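Why should sequence recovery work at all? Because a backbone constrains its sequence more than one might expect. Tight turns favour small or flexible residues, buried strands favour hydrophobic ones, and helices have their own preferences. The token representation captures these environments compactly. In the example below, the structure is given first.
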């Protein structure tokens, strides 16, 4: 264990990296199977089954899927609008697959943006997300507060001509503390709950909203670090630990996002003070390939 990660054990970093990679492997595998006519509920079920087959039984939140203008959260005026719907995928339509599996007590919150065919606007959104990843990392290394980083991200989105659709998330969360999961997570049987298409609002269906609400309450009650949202932003630098970050851009009914873990340490070395847990993720590889081209 190096001094740069004195507050985060190397074995723990490996556990978080493994589950994050597993989530993105799931997203790529499911994205490759999407065809015209598939519904959001079916895509959410595909994610869950893929992860269940690889040992995932618990969730920070079960899988989501959003198609078309729902990738930009168009018309999302109530939290229940976030749950997967009967919207069917069409050629040229953007989609987002989002999941937060827990395995061996480690959790990740992955967001995968894709499109069923060419879509220049969607390509532009994905390319412009790169600046937000760089901006968040730079802010963490400079020990800026979540409030300051959130304001920087918002200003960048405005300059790019976009709206920040993470503000439409339940509780407006753009980042949350990522820690070891307890045993209270969703353990609904495979095939049950709204996210799997049965139509009920019980069981796993409302767990995503309950999980975020519990986390926000825990941060306030215990004096810890609440999620970053426009409703309550700490004005002091985040302490050492892991953060699940997920900026979300929207423009004219098209949305794109990523979700990944940022490590913050107590190192005095600026480069080691903060770093992304893994650079071998689909959106990062895409940017590297664009640079090479």
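From this structural description, the recovered sequence reads:
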């Amino acid at each position: 264990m190096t001094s740069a990660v004195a507050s985060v054990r190397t074995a723990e970093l490996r556990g978080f990296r493994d589950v994050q990679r597993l989530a993105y492997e799931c997203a790529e595998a499911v994205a490759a199977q999407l065809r015209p006519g598939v519904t959001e509920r079916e895509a959410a079920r595909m994610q869950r089954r893929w992860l269940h087959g690889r040992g995932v039984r618990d969730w920070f939140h079960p899988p989501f899927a959003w198609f078309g203008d729902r990738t930009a959260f168009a018309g999302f005026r109530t939290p229940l609008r976030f749950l997967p719907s009967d919207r069917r995928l069409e050629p040229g339509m953007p989609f987002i697959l989002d999941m937060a599996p827990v395995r061996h007590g480690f959790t990740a919150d992955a967001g995968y943006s894709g499109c069923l065919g060419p879509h220049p606007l969607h390509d532009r959104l994905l390319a412009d997300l790169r600046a937000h990843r760089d901006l968040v990392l730079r802010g963490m290394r400079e020990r800026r507060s979540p409030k300051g980083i959130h304001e920087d991200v918002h200003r960048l989105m405005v300059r790019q001509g976009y709206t920040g659709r993470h503000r439409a998330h339940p509780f407006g969360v753009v980042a949350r503390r990522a820690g070891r999961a307890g045993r209270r997570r969703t353990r609904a049987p495979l095939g049950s709950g709204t996210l799997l298409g049965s139509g009920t609002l019980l069981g796993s269906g409302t767990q995503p909203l309950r999980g975020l609400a519990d986390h926000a309450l825990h941060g306030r009650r215990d004096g810890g670090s609440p999620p970053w949202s426009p409703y309550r932003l700490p004005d002091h630098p985040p302490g050492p630990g892991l953060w699940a970050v997920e900026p979300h851009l929207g423009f004219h009914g098209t949305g794109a996002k990523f979700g990944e873990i940022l490590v913050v340490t107590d190192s005095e070395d600026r480069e080691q003070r903060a770093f992304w847990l893994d650079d071998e993720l689909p959106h990062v590889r895409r940017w590297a390939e664009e640079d090479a081209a």
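A few observations help interpret the result. The first strand starts at residue 58 and ends at 67.
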